[in-house]
Amino acid sequence: MEAILNEDIQILKRIQANLESCILGKMDEIKLLLTAMLAGGHVLLEDVPGTGKTVLIKSLARSIEGQFRRIQCNPDLLPTDITGVSIYHPKDEVFIFRAGPIMTNILLADEINRATTKTQSALLEAMEERHITVDGETHALPEPFLLLATQNPIDFEGTYMLPEAQLDRFMMKFSLGYPDEATEMKMILSQSVIHPLDQIQPVADVGQIRGIQQRVKQVHLDDAVAAYLVAVTRQTREHPAIFLGASPRATISLVQASKAYAMLQERDYVIPDDIKFLAPYVLGHRILLHAEARMDGATVQSILQSVFQQVRVPVRLEK
């Protein structure tokens, strides 16, 4: 196991280096993206335009030689524009399935909140079940399958709120944000001749990623750490400032993400710090605060900090 783990870590380091060459100064966000991919989860990127979301996703697809498709969401987009449609072939008198862009390894749903709720709902089955159903026939999605959706947090005209059921299916939600001054200066100089994305070379393939995803499941989760994780998610349901706490799906997502992040940290076991780092990104978008708490200035992040202060950290772990 140790030799295989070392080989997996080297692959992940090469992928991470590729992404860091395209998106400067965003090491934590890159690790979050890789964590979601290894854990088999989906990501919602909420950010203003021009921060590098599309470049980050494209560089990941090129690094693993994965198929990449992009959907530009708008109110005219239909569910069949995503999933595909069965077309009648008169010569053979049969229906032929024409696959939509969802039949890919990495799917970018750009500005997902501009699509209607009906179209957004077309993604639910794919996100959870890893297959789609068109005209009564089920079609399995390629493996790995990773959905990365983006939304603009400041432009509300012509947008539709994501339903809670769909938000809960995203393993993580985070943003890239603006770079600092030194990083932005370095970015300008690095792109003066050629865009870093054009220099990205594959360093893995989808078969290797599938193998690593299976081995992530074998990362050890001590009973004490598991109890700590469950206590954190359960506390979100009991906190007086929280109206809607984390779901059982959120608990499972946090387990899967913690195992994947542990591997990125070159460990074959999960520690409490993994859970503390990931919880804001895995639980934050699934939690709703009471109106009174929001009026008092409370935020999801501040409430999560108080949750961690109330849950005792295990001090002795068994590998």
UniProtKB/TrEMBL annotation:
<dbReference type="Pfam" id="PF07726">
    <property type="entry name" value="AAA_3"/>
</dbReference>
<feature type="domain" description="ATPase AAA-3">
    <location>
        <begin position="42"/>
        <end position="172"/>
    </location>
</feature>
<dbReference type="Pfam" id="PF17863">
    <property type="entry name" value="AAA_lid_2"/>
</dbReference>
<protein>
    <submittedName>
        <fullName>Magnesium chelatase</fullName>
    </submittedName>
</protein>
<dbReference type="InterPro" id="IPR041628">
    <property type="entry name" value="ChlI/MoxR_AAA_lid"/>
</dbReference>
<dbReference type="GO" id="GO:0005524">
    <property type="term" value="F:ATP binding"/>
</dbReference>
<dbReference type="GO" id="GO:0016887">
    <property type="term" value="F:ATP hydrolysis activity"/>
</dbReference>
<dbReference type="InterPro" id="IPR011703">
    <property type="entry name" value="ATPase_AAA-3"/>
</dbReference>
<feature type="domain" description="ChlI/MoxR AAA lid">
    <location>
        <begin position="234"/>
        <end position="306"/>
    </location>
</feature>
<dbReference type="InterPro" id="IPR050764">
    <property type="entry name" value="CbbQ/NirQ/NorQ/GpvN"/>
</dbReference>
<keyword id="KW-0547">Nucleotide-binding</keyword>
<keyword id="KW-0067">ATP-binding</keyword>
<comment type="similarity">
    <text>Belongs to the MoxR family.</text>
</comment>
<dbReference type="InterPro" id="IPR027417">
    <property type="entry name" value="P-loop_NTPase"/>
</dbReference>
